[in-house]
Recover the amino acids of this structure.
């Protein structure tokens, strides 16, 4: 297991499309390039959407998991 | 009769299908652009306009929304109830209350019952309201361009519209930004 330092956390649980993406886009601005942001969401559509968003923006989706209906994404800022 | 099917000779040299986005042309890293023409003032049309425009801005695109005809009424300041200069223009807003919080459904409106139910469902499922999306869109730099001709015809002054609106423009501006954009939508 590798430990990584998360620079910013976005709690988007209970929010529907497109707010998890919108909130993440706003929050990632406060992360330095190369820094990490963690997002928690309950919207099942966010799995496809964060992958698409990462491709469009160039931020890197480095980890994703699901635990008890909560989706977790870790992204590295471009 | 014999059918002969010719297949290309398979070889290791055939490149694998390109799954990733095409690489950008060297030296031309142009920001992608989306243009939406917001024609309708209905809740079920303005909502997707705001969802797509805020998501476009969140995805790093430049997004411009040309706001015309019925689509202009949701962008009137909410404190304004009746706008317009003559009685016909005033009748318009008497029948269709302006402002982002007073949108009607294009179908199943049932004298406001439809939008009320839509509002309850929205809250139950954590969907952002048109107002929340409009605030997010303007905060992230979505540009809203009001149609000058509609403003004249509806008797709307610049100060009747929300402060976040850009400078009014016409059809030639709409055509220019649509043809320059990577994608454009009329909703």
């Amino acid at each position: 297991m590798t430990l990584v330092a998360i620079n910013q956390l976005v709690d988007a649980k209970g929010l529907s499309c497109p707010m998890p993406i919108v909130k993440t886009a706003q929050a990632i601005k406060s992360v330095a390039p190369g820094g990490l942001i963690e997002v928690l969401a309950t919207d099942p559509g966010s799995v496809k959407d964060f992958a698409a968003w990462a491709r469009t923006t160039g931020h890197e989706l480095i980890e994703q998991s699901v635990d008890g209906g909560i989706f977790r994404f870790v992204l590295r800022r471009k | 009769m014999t059918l002969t099917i010719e297949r290309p000779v398979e070889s290791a040299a055939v490149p694998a299908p390109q799954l990733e986005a095409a690489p950008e042309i060297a030296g031309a890293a142009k920001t992608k652009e989306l243009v939406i023409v917001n024609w309708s003032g209905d809740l079920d049309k303005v909502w997707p306009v705001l969802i797509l425009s805020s998501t476009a801005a969140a995805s790093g695109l430049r997004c411009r929304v040309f706001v015309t005809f019925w689509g202009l009424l949701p962008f009137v300041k909410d404190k304004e109830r009746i706008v317009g200069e003559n009685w016909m223009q005033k009748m318009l807003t008497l029948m269709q209350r302006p402002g982002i919080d007073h949108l009607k459904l294009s179908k199943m409106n049932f004298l406001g019952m439809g939008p009320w139910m839509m509002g309850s469902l929205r809250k139950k499922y954590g969907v952002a309201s048109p107002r929340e999306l409009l605030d997010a869109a303007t905060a992230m730099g979505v540009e809203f361009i009001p149609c000058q001709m509609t403003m004249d015809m509806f008797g709307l002054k610049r100060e009747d519209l929300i402060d976040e609106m850009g400078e009014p423009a016409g059809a030639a501006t709409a055509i220019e930004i649509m043809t320059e954009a990577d994608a454009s939508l009329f909703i």
